Amino acid sequence: MASCGCRSEACRRWASAGQLGRLSLAAEPQLQGSLVKLAAFMFKQCREMGKEEEAESERRRRQMQTKLKMLNSWLPLLCRGVNGPDAPILSTGERREVESALEEMIATLQQDDQEQVLALWLHHFTYSSSSDWPDLHASYTLAGTPPLVSSSSTDITNLTFPYVLLSSTG
């Protein structure tokens, strides 16, 4: 992608597929596995956007919007769809690489956007008891938020988060 100059366009289009990201949460495990692999690949590609050259402010703003849309669209799938029916979808090394890409992308966002993405992550991360990935606690701490879990227990009822999560009250 990078060699033919399509990375930004591919990332922009993948980020715009938010409806697919939402629908993938209810997909069959085999399809979720393929989408997790594709999303992981795209997060690694998107992390590199803007590193090739010094981007002008309008282009940089568009790239940040793409990264934000991509995180909002696909982070829930990574939290909920990481385990396949028989084995983990991504290897330990791949998980670490994607986690690093996610952390880098979050770090490039503005503070308000970081809080929005981390609130989304926390909601989906705590929803799925079968997964401990992606672990973005470091980004959460760097964003200036209080510790996630009290030192006395890892019980989910001890989670602290200062931001209101959106409810599904229509």
UniProtKB/TrEMBL annotation:
GO process terms (BP): protein ubiquitination
Source species, domain of life: Eukaryota
Protein name: Uncharacterized protein LOC111430738
Natural source organism: Cucurbita moschata
